[in-house]
Amino acid sequence: MVPARLLRACVRHGPAWWPTARAAEVLDKRLMHHPITSIARTRYGARIPVTTSDLIQRYLYMFGTWEPNLTAWICGQLRPGDDFIDVGANVGHFSLLAASLIGPSGRVVAIEASPRLAATLVQTATANGYKNVRVVSSAVSAAAGELTFYIKDRNNLGGTTSIRPRKQPPAAFSAPTASLPDLLSATELENARIIKIDVEGSEADVMDGLSPHLHRLRPDAELAIEISPKRLARQGRTPRDVTAPMHAAGFRRYRIDNSYAPRSYAERQVTPPHPWPHPITEMSDLIFSRSHHSASPSGPHATR
Length: 304
Description:
- GO terms for molecular function: methyltransferase activity.
- The structure is a single chain.
- The protein is of the alpha/beta class.
- It has a single domain, classed as Vaccinia Virus protein VP39 (Rossmann fold, 3-Layer(aba) Sandwich).
- It is 35% helix and 22% strand.
- The strands form 3 sheets. Strands 5-4-3-9-10-13-11-12 form an 8-stranded mixed sheet, with helices on both faces. Strands 6-8-7 form a 3-stranded mixed sheet.
- Helix 1 (4-13) crosses helix 2 and helix 2 packs across helix 3 (55-63).
C-alpha cells in the first residue's frame, strides 16, 4: 500500500494528468474511511486544523484549497484595503484567503453559526497572525431569534442546515440569529467588496434581512451566493426570493461551476463565472455583480 503521505505529495505537486487524478481518488477514500487529524497548509500559506472524515477539511488537507473556481474568482477580485464578509465561514478557508489578499488595511468578518467551528476559527486566525479577521458566532436570518441546526452527514459538516430533515437526526446545536446588517458595523457593510453567503437553504431568509440595505453597498460590491432550490422549496420559498431583490438592485447573475470529485481538483482546470439567465433548478453557486461581466480568475492564488 502506498503511504498516504506519498499519495498526498503526488496529489499536491504531481502533473495534472490521469495518474495524479487516480491518486487523488485513492487518497480521498483512504482519508474518509481512516481519518486523521492534522494541520492542512493551504495554497495561500494558512495552516488550518483538520479532521479528514469531513469533506471540506479532507480536501484542504489533500489539495490546499476548497471550491477552486470560487477561490480563483475571489483572488481576482479582492485588493488591499477591501472588506470581505463570509456568511457561513465553516473552518475559515475563504475568510483566511481573503485576509491574505486584503492585508492589514482590509477587514474580514467571518460569521459562523456553529459555536465549535466559530471558536476554532478564532484560534486559527490568531495562530496564522491574521489580526484583520473578526469572527461572529451567530446564524444569519431575517431578524433576531434562535435556530436549531441539524447535521445530516457527519462526513460533510458543511451540509449542516437549519432545515429540518425528513429523517430527523438529533439536533446538533442551537444558535442565535440576526440580520446581516445587524451583525455588521455600517463601515463593514458599506465597504464590503465581496459578501459570500453559503447557508445551506437559508439564503432567502438572509436576503430578507439584507435586501432593504442593498443600496448601501459600494458600486463594485459583488455577492457570491449558494442557492439550494430543494431546501428553499421545503420552506415554501423559491430561488426568486433570492434573485429578484438582487436584480431589482441592478445586479446581474453569473454561475460558477463546481465539482466535488477529487479527480476534478487534481486536474486543476479553473473556469471563470459565466452569465446565467436560465432558471435555477439545482444547487448553484452564483455571483451577483453590477458589472457587465465578472472577472476571470487571476491573482497570486488563482490556480489550484
